[in-house]
Amino acid sequence: MSGGSIRLRLLLAGAAAILAALALAAVGLRVLFERHVERRAYAEMLVDLDQLAAGLSRAPDGSVTVTRPPSDPRFARPLSGSYWQVETDTGGPSRSRSLWDGALDLPDPAPPPGTPREDALEGPGGATLLLLERTLTLAEGGGVSRVRTAVALDRSEVRAATRAFVGDLAPYVALLAAMLIAAGAAQVAVGLRPLAKVGERVAAVRSGEKSRLGADFPREIRPLAAEVDALIAEREEALLRARGRSADLAHGLKSPLQALIGEADRLRAKGERAEAEGIEEIALAMQRHVDRELARARVASAARLALSEPAGVIDRLLAVLRRTPEGARLGWRVDALPGLRARIDADDLTEALGALLENAARHARAAVEIRASRAGGRVVIEIADDGPGIPPELLRTLRTRGVRLDLAGPGAGLGLSIASEIAAAAGGALALENGRQGLIARLDLPAAPPSS
């Protein structure tokens, strides 16, 4: 069974083991109690047997009679379950009144003289009897005779006492089972607590609050934590190597692309406009891919541990944009929650917001509104301009899976593409929609705990 809950499996296994052990213990106690009751019954029957032997006497004709039977009143009550019987060599058996008109069918052979023997036999009504018998040797008047004395008890009395004991024992066994299962549940909870701590540490590493799991775990958990930390370290090294290779490749392509663009300018100057535009279109497309990969490589390795404050980034960007011709003509309204922090590198957030703000400045007529707030575990930054917006059919195209933003036309080119790539690498997303007056660009990013 590979799925399911470890806690539930441990609880079920523990409960099953406890119930099986208690059931076995209850059966053992029942057997021991029954044997104890039987021993007590035989001890009492031995007293009756001694009384029976003491009450024997020989008649003048040589026969043996019971002049003083045992004192237990059950021997005088018919079919009471307590019986005695005496057999001699010379006469028929004498028996208790409780046997009524029946007799005990004593097993052969008789026990040796003087030694009591325990046995079982079938009694009146098919009842199983506990039997205690002894052979006595009587010598009187020069003659010797053997007398076989027997006392029997209905075994149902032992069974009744055993059932009563089990009935009294059952509630305590059930209470003990409940207490042991509760103790087992507490033990499982305490035992699995380090695993819950591992889960919390992994979540903290994933969210960027911690870089490693650490070693402050019980001895059994430390190898797991060490392996996870080693895996994280290897992943970070692999990301750094991949980032370096991607950056090297991108930078290596920049110079040839610039040369192609320069060649296109020379062809255009010679009047070969079509050829120049073809080369320039291909070079610019390749340039967009290079810039995108540079942005992705930069963000991928740092996004997990990075933190930034959107309010500060927005203030720095607006301080620059207000000095540009496009930004100076606009009214900028900012509503950013103080102390709000996003889990993204400040430089990456600056580039993403810079692309969105520049896009808004190009298309806005008179004003741009910026809002930064927290929604659950996310930071939402909205940039709304009062420009013409984007045609609805292009918005639908932009939302189609696999379509690049930079292919959407004017106003949704390379800047929006890079902003989208940066947001995705940081675990967020960029959404575009038309508002009442213009375009709304909504940047959704994972939130970080506020600074203390």
Automatic annotation (TrEMBL):
Residues in the signal sequence: none
Cellular compartments annotated: Membrane
Pfam families: HATPase_c (PF02518)
Transmembrane intervals: 169-192
Enzyme class: transferase
Main location group: membrane
UniProt domain Histidine kinase: residue ranges: 248-449
SMART domains: HATPase_c
GO terms under cellular component: plasma membrane
Entry-linked InterPro entries: HATPase_C_sf, HATPase_dom, His_kinase_dom, Sig_transdc_His_kin-like_C, TCS_sensor_his_kinase
Stated name of the protein: histidine kinase
Species annotation: Amaricoccus solimangrovi
